[in-house]
From TrEMBL:
Residues 449-459 have a biased composition (Pro residues). InterPro entries: FAD/NAD-bd_sf, FAD/NAD-binding_dom, NDH-2. Residues 440-459 are annotated as: Disordered. This is NAD(P)/FAD-dependent oxidoreductase. PANTHER family: NADH DEHYDROGENASE, NADH DEHYDROGENASE-LIKE PROTEIN RV1812C. It comes from Streptomyces tendae. One of its GO terms (molecular function) is NADH dehydrogenase activity. Its EC number is 1.6.5.-. Keywords: FAD, Flavoprotein, NAD, Oxidoreductase.
Length: 459
């Protein structure tokens, strides 16, 4: 039996937040029914985004609504609060939370008290002070960014097709991606594949007219799949006339000109920034111990070291890898570990409430898979290296098995089958980002300006 009315606060609704709350909901079914436990999930969005499917959503292979999982449907026994945790005072077991209603109420942030804290806010894009990046760059971490980028690429092809200005045409058909990790390589591979297909429907735009540039500061891309497959990926991308620049940095993108550290200059209307992530800012607004990279210092039980009743996993946590041969190694901040850590984390919070021994998180990394476009991919799984169609098929099979809920699995599979039978959809729905524009004009007003970091506004 747990103590009377144990309050569990889960901060974050991503991989770790959702899966931990789901595990707690299952483990504590009886306690929840009797009112002995309450679980509150604070999340900035009412859904969990399955990020490995963002490139396919951007390419039109999957509908955007099937890349996300509605939290209120999945976490029916939890209180889902759409908002942000601004700060946490673990000494008093209190979190300061702002919600969508905070500004309207004008009563200030809410104070949420708890007995057990699960910190899983994830990460945010790690940007650098590159001139023009804040004005013209777009990230690739959210479904809004993925769909906005798809609309933007198709819109640039429309601009190039209709303009008589060769400089404008060249800039519209130049696409710069910064960062050679999963997000950058998969986004570029899928969008280039889509744009190549879409070009057949333009009478004056060909795949050869487009410039796709991948900029990576280190000497290799996709380090997770190994050096050999990383070199293979570079070769495959270059075979598709994608300009891969290794050991190169983006120095500036001011005035819509991408200036690289090797001296190259590319007039462009598209700069996609995928050069890494950093811990969520809320971690710095807590009284919990952090490592030198700003992550929570955790034990192998996924508890925060030296902070009883505080737990963490995923991107926000530095978790020791007990399966590593070298001492001091930590688990990689990826989805494979996050999903598995969440199950152990949910079990350990349950064990702590019931006074039971805690489990140790131990998982040997199985490998990595990456898609490079339709029927193209690389994979390094359990020591085996795959390329091309087999790797692409494994990528889809693996992520289909991991996407949450049977509902989502069935919908994604159905869309893949339909996409295999019929032609791609290449329609840009960029106007969805500005739904009031037409009415504002009809009412005699001026259409509102694009928000600063909107992908379309950055075009």
């Amino acid at each position: 039996m747990v103590k009377e009315r144990a309050r569990i606060l889960v901060v974050g609704g991503g991989y770790v937040g959702m899966y931990t709350a789901l595990r707690l909901q299952r483990n504590l079914k009886g306690e929840l029914r009797r009112g002995e436990v309450e679980i509150t999930v604070v999340t900035p969005d009412p859904y969990m985004t399955y990020q490995p499917f963002l490139p396919e959503a951007a390419a039109g292979s999957i509908s955007p609504r099937h890349v996300v999982v509605p939290l209120r449907r999945v976490l029916g026994q939890c209180d889902v609060v759409v908002g942000e945790a601004e700060s946490i005072d673990h000494a008093t077991r209190t979190a300061t939370v702002t919600t969508l209603a905070t500004g309207e109420e004008k009563t200030g942030a809410r104070r949420v008290t708890y007995d057990e804290l699960v910190l899983a806010p994830g990460s945010v894009s790690r940007t650098l002070p590159v001139p023009g990046l804040a004005d013209h760059g777009v990230g690739f971490k959210t479904v809004e960014e993925a769909i906005g980028l798809r609309n933007h690429v198709l819109e640039q092809m429309d601009i190039a097709s209709s303009t008589r200005d060769p400089a404008l045409r060249d800039a519209a058909l130049t696409f710069v991606f910064v960062g050679g990790g999963y997000a950058g390589v998969e986004a570029l591979g899928e969008l280039e594949d889509m744009a190549r297909y879409a070009a057949r429907y333009y009478h004056n735009v060909t795949p050869e007219d487009m410039k796709w540039i991948l900029v990576e500061a280190s000497g290799r891309i996709l380090p997770e799949v190994g050096e050999d497959l990383g070199r293979y990926t570079v070769t495959e991308l270059r075979r598709r006339n994608i300009d891969v620049r290794l050991d190169t940095r983006l120095e500036s993108c001011a005035d819509r000109v991408a200036v690289l550290s090797d001296g190259s200059r590319f007039p462009t209307r598209t700069v996609v920034w995928t050069a890494g992530v950093k811990p969520h800012p809320v971690l710095a607004a807590t009284d919990l111990p952090l490592d030198d990279r700003g992550r929570l210092t955790c034990t192998a039980h996924l508890s925060v070291d030296g902070a009883p009743h505080a737990w963490a996993a995923g991107d926000a946590a530095a978790v020791p890898d007990v399966t590593a041969s070298e001492p001091g190694r930590e688990c990689a901040p990826n989805a494979q570990h996050a999903v598995r850590q969440a199950k152990v984390l949910g079990d350990n919070v349950t064990h702590a409430l019931r006074g039971e021994p805690l489990d140790t998180y131990a998982h040997t990394y199985a490998g990595s898979v990456a898609s490079l476009g339709f029927h193209k991919g690389v994979a390094h799984v359990y020591g085996r290296k795959l390329k091309g169609y087999p790797a692409w098929f494994m990528h889809r099979a693996y992520h289909l098995s991991r996407v949450p809920t049977v509902n989502r699995k069935a919908r994604v599979l159905a869309e893949w089958v339909i996409a295999g039978l019929f032609k791609r959809e290449i329609v840009s729905l960029g106007s969805l980002e500005h739904p009031r524009a037409e009415f504002e004009l009809a009412a005699g007003g001026k259409p509102s300006q694009d928000p600063p970091n909107n992908p379309k506004g950055s075009s």
